[in-house]
Description:
By secondary structure, the chain is α/β, with parallel strands linked by helices. The protein has helices at about 5, 55-60, 65-80, 95-100, 100-115, 120-135, 170-175, 180-185, 185-195, 215-225, 240-250, 255-260, 260-265, 270-285, 300-305, 315-325, 335-340, 355-365, 370-385, 395-410, 415-420, 425-445, 475-490, and strands at about 15-20, 25-35, 45-50, 85-90, 115-120, 140-145, 150-160, 160-170, 205-210, 235-240, 290-295, 455-460, 460-470, 495-500. It has 3 domains: about 5-120, Nucleotidyltransferase, domain 5 (2-Layer Sandwich), CATH 3.30.420; about 125-300, Exopolyphosphatase. Domain 2 (Nucleotidyltransferase, domain 5, 2-Layer Sandwich), CATH 3.30.420; about 315-500, Hypothetical protein af1432 (Orthogonal Bundle), CATH 1.10.3210. The chain has a 6-stranded mixed sheet with strand order 8-7-6-9-11-10, sandwiched between helices. Strands 3-2-1-4-5 form a 5-stranded mixed sheet, sandwiched between helices. A 3-stranded mixed sheet has the order 12-13-14.
Amino acid sequence: MLLKKVIQQKVFSAKKDAIIDLGSNSIRMLIYQDFINSQIPVFNEKAVCALGKTLDKTGRLDPEGVEYAYNVLERFKNILDNSKISSCEVIATAAVREAKDSKEFIDKVEQILNQKVNVLTGEEEAERSALGVISGFEKADGIVADLGGGSLELARIKSGKILNKATLPLGVLRLMNQPKKRQKKVGKFIMTEISNVSWLSKTKVHNLYLVGGTWRAWLKARIFLSKYPLNILHQYTISPEEASQDCVRFSTKKKIISLKLDLITKSRTDYIPVSLDILSALLVLVSPEKVVCSISGLREGTLIKNLPENFAAEDTLDAFISYSAFKNGDYGENYIKYFDFIKNIFSDNENFPLRLLPAVCSLSGMDWGMGAFQKAELVFSQILNTPTLKLSHYDRIKLACAGFWRHCGVKYYPDLTILKLLNNNEIKACKQVGSALRLASGIANMSSIFLDNINLFKKGKTLVLQVPNKLSQIISKQVIKRFKTLAKELSLEYKIIYSS
């Protein structure tokens, strides 16, 4: 656990890092502030330039795409000049890597941006995408598949390590622009290419991590169609069977338009069918237990390359929580006092992991002078959408529910369409944590310093609150009521002990 390390970190960097990705289909710029503590960009803009549109036919970058790219990069340069950027890295992938006229293009880009362009090899792309995925999940284990306009990168990851890498000429733009005769055989071509990666089917795979804008567009549409209550792509998870069904349901542009999804998928609509042809082949060869979306990939992995060796594999949630508390005004780190107060009674709660306790202590701790129920609803919504990568959808819901019950008590309920994604035991655990935080809030109403001197613990079948005699006035009727509620939620007897 990183909490002890984070407690010592008092000053957060104002350092801003930018990365520009010259992709085969789109060009994107992202700006991160204090990337070590928060891996969510503060600026994220893309333009679909389709540099690789004519690559297979002419061997050169698309002329219209090139001119559009220059205009886009002029805008990006202006933003960089006005954003006090500490560092900027420019990377290029398959189309620029393979084009005959790439040197001319790179020279012009470097002139516009006054930055060197790093043209990545296919294996470097695969490695960096894998690092990005590793950094975005608590324990990433499986196959990373990063689909771009010009290529497909694959990597096998486990225990924070990259075991295998491969790159294939299976980009959506490349496949879409094949002659009509070849397009009829595209499924066979895809299967042949992927089958040549010998290590893909040799081991049991828990997860297939999907990276890339076209797959994200499909998953956005899927969330809409299924009425899934969390509109969050990162760590959105479906079964292989559900993915296979979508490979049929979204198999043509006509079908997508008939589902009235073309506005959701926007510029990616044309490419979704061929992207699902690739996914279909991967599902056959990999046989994953789950299919998982990752918004963290090549660009995040590129920035991670400059950080300490084990950064990607560490659970960076605690670092983000400390950073978030600092950004939201909790300079005294009160959330740590809350954590220390309640942690002993939840050390063995399998339905609310201990790693989430610091997060809920911090993220639920806002007070904007609202009424209890309005505050609870606001906290619930904000926690669900917390800008960090390491939280799964279930993590987010648990944190949001506990935060909700911290502010309004367990007789009220948050959004039931979201709550129903948890089972009864998980809901019960969230109520317990929320009740514990509600008790802590009652004690800390006068000052959070009192939490340092009052102990909360379980002794057999009894919940005990141990209070120094000199602080007995802190234990008001409201505190006693909240203590009893917590004991009831834990199915324990309760006892207050006053000591000298």
